[in-house]
Amino acid sequence: MSSLKVINYQYADVFYTGLRKKEFGWLLGVEEKGLIKLMGVMEFVSPEPRKEVYRKSKS
Questions:
Q1: DSSP letters along 2-54, please?
Q2: d(CA 46, CA 57)
Q3: Which of 1, 2, 3, 43 is 20 to 30 Å from 33 at the Cα level?
Q4: Measured between alpha carbons, how far is 53 from 51 in angstroms, rounded to an integer?
Q5: pLDDT in single tens digits along all 59 residues of the chain
Q6: pLDDT of residue 55
Q7: ∠ CA(22), CA(47), CA(51), 5° rounding?
Q8: Cα separation of 40 and 37, whole Å?
Q9: CA distances from 28 to 6, 8, 18 (A)
Q10: Which pLDDT value is given to residue 1?
Q11: What's the pLDDT score for residue 31?
């Protein structure tokens, strides 16, 4: 018997709404009916984008 692994990726335009510092993560939201609805935390971010966002958030 063989098995099949299926990965379903979904893509969406999201807004960066904040930063979780203790355990790194970006807080993300989507626009819904003119408001930003919080959707979750993105924890796995490569070092370069992480540094860029951190620099911009300090200014």
A1: -------------EEEEEETTTTEEEEEEEETTEEEEEEEE----HHHHHHHH
A2: 17
A3: 43
A4: 6
A5: 677 777 878 888 889 888 887 888 888 999 999 999 998 888 887 888 888 877 877 76
A6: 83
A7: 75
A8: 10
A9: 25, 20, 7
A10: 67
A11: 92
Residue 35, pLDDT score: 94
Distance of CA 21 to the CA centre of its chain: 14
CA distance 35 to 15: 11
Instruction: Name 49's Cβ contacts closer than 8 Å, sequence gap at least 6.
Output: none
Contact between 25 and 41 under an 8 Å Cβ cutoff? The reply is yes
SS3 (DSSP) at 58 = helix
